[in-house]
Amino acid sequence: MTTPAVAIQAQGAMGAGIAARLTTHGATVMTSLDGRSAADAAAASQPALSAGFARMVPSMYGKACRRAGEMHEMADFAREDPGAAAIRGGTAALYARLARPGAAREIAALRAFLGGGMPSRT
CA 76, CA 98: separation in Å to the nearest integer? Predict the structure, then answer.
């Protein structure tokens, strides 16, 4: 039987996991769109999501190398569910791209989509 403290901790971990995956999927969409009009449209139609992305996406850059490895491990763990493994594998690929030294252009696209003014990649 799960104790209340464990249940609360599990709920917190679930929420953090959902937020992290939502952020990476949002970043994937952002890097596939061109132009400021797409960002304006997204901000107008989903202001809460846009605000969350503006707050959370910049933190992805410095964690990309570690997260790529984590997502590869999660994809391997989920290999019996091809869809779940593919999602995690795709997320690992996004993080791997952001971790490369040549990722400046993709990171610049994310910054432009989110309105600039974000901290630089460390």
Answer: 21
